[in-house]
Amino acid sequence: MNTDLTPRITIMPNAERLARNCAAFFCRTAVESVARNGRFHVALSGGSTPRPMHRLLATPPYLTDIPWAHTHIYWADERLVTEDDPASNFGAAKKDLLDRLPIQKEHIHPMVSPRPPSEAAADYERLLAKSFGTDPPKLPIFDCIFLGIGQDGHTASIFPGDRTAVDTTRWVVAVNGGSPNVDRLTLTLAVLRQARCIVFLVTGSDKAETVQTILEQDRETLPPQWLASNDNQVFWFLDQDAARLLTGDTFRNEA
Ligand code: 6PG
Q1: Which residues line ligand 1 (CB under 6 A)?
Q2: How far is the CA of 48 from the centre of ligand 1 (A)?
Q3: Among 51, 118, 145, 249, which residue's CB has the most CB atoms within a 10 Å radius?
Q4: Rounded to an integer, what distance in angstroms lies between the CA atom of residue 227 and that of residue 153?
Q5: Spacing, Cα 36 to ligand 1 middle (Å)
Q6: Summary mean pLDDT of the chain
Q7: CATH architecture assignment, domain 8-253
Q8: Which of 143, 142, 144, 147 is nearest to 238 (CA)?
Q9: Ligand 1 midpoint to CA 202 (Å)
Q10: What are 162-178's pLDDT values in tens digits?
Q11: Could you tell me the pTM of the whole model?
């Protein structure tokens, strides 16, 4: 039970140091999860920010230090394009990480699907139920979900103003939007909130205003503000550019 809902904010000098810190965080969380319950269920996000971390995880010491044989990799969201499309989150992760890991392919759970979006969403819900051994209404509990944010304040594919993934008991829904503006699947707010650990990775000056709104504006108008709960811990890893507008003292600077 987590009584303190304050997100833990760490600011790194630059994106390269952020990737290194987040890879180390991924490793620690994986080791702790496997020690606690024999498995590590982790969901990745797409976009450009996490790619340096993904590439680091496919290098020493992480190739051996992370218990890949007990790790299951999922996605927080996916664009419904083919895996070889540059917009594919799975396709990018395959190049950066998955093809280099000592991990059984049965432990890699892409959302990519040729089926119609609503059927693909139901398919992924069934995959989650089987993999977590959990049936609705009980929610799957991810050990860790890595997320980014868009300049508009979206996370995963939960876009401000679109309640499809918010006002629902579903685990996965089909939405449309974002950039590229394509059909997508996304874990819903309910599933994201249920994770033991939620980690936001944000870099770049263009995200600074959104970061300041999310972390320092009281009115909770953006999806990332809806994730903290008594059952999870939310971490923000920011580079100095993304954190440049923060005025509070609620963060720790990594030299
Ligand atoms: C997606 C991502 C999305 C991403 C943000 C940030 O599929 O679009 O999951 O939520 O995390 O848009 O993207 P960048 O890291 O490229 O800024």
Answers
A1: 45-49, 76-77, 89, 148-150, 154-157, 178
A2: 7
A3: 145
A4: 13
A5: 30
A6: 95
A7: 3-Layer(aba) Sandwich (3.40)
A8: 147
A9: 10
A10: 999 999 999 999 999 89
A11: 0.96
